[in-house]
Amino acid sequence: MELEQLKQQWEILHKRLDEQKIINKRLMENAVRQKIDFINSYNLFTSISALILIPFLFIVQKQKNLDGILFYFILICAFLFIGFSVFWSLQFAKKMSVKTKTLELEKFLLKYKRYTYISTIIAYIWSIIIFAWTIVIYYDLFVQYNRLEIAIVAYLATFLLIVFIGTRDIKRLKNLHQSIFDLKEFEKE
């Protein structure tokens, strides 16, 4: 009789454990899905923000008469950023669908992380070049109107913002990668 009771209790515990595994897997999948959705919406936001930059550049060019070479350099950088951003955002949204297998998600995420690292470094370099170029070109105006210190502080604040955004994006991708890795390990069990 005791053996029968133990078998029944074992079956009940085994069913509960299976149910808990299913619940845990769904929770992990939902966590991954939320992170992917956030990155997708963030990618859309940055692409739209970059698109808003282009008319702003033309307005500043018309009103402040920016140096032609500097203006076109910034414009080319903006178009390149928008093109790559939109392309990778669409690829990310497409590859990170619900139906994609965990291993494929991880492989694509590694490519996307590499792109993000490279684009972040390029953004740092371009911003330094643009800021230095602007100070060199407009040095006399900055000095004439006692705005050199303000310009340097504004450029440093902007650069620090770019660094903050870049490191935060990389951290989000690392968290997503860790979540996908955990889900993959959970599926192996």
What are the salient characteristics of this protein?
elongated; single chain; 189 residues; mainly alpha
Summarize this entry quickly.
This protein is mainly α and 189 residues long.
DSSP strand tally: 0
Number of separate structural domains: 1
Structural category:
mainly alpha
Query: What proportion of the residues is helical, as a percent range?
Result: over 70%
Name the shape in a single word: elongated
- What portion of the residues fall into strands of 2 or more residues? under 5%
Name the average pLDDT.
84
Please state the CA-atom Rg, rounded to the nearest Å.
25 Å
- How far apart, in Å, are the first and last alpha carbons? 34 Å
Unreliable runs? none
Succession of helices and strands: HHHHH
Continuous helix count: 5
Largest sheet: none
Description:
By secondary structure, this protein is mostly helical. The chain has one domain (2-188). 92% of the residues lie in helices and 0% in strands. The protein is built from five helices and no strands. The protein has helices at residues 2-64, 68-95, 102-137, 139-144, 148-188. The chain is elongated, with a radius of gyration of 25 Å. The model has no long low-confidence stretch (mean pLDDT 84).
Give the SSE layout.
Layout: H1 2-64, H2 68-95, H3 102-137, H4 139-144, H5 148-188
Helix pairs in contact: 1-2, 1-5, 2-3, 3-5
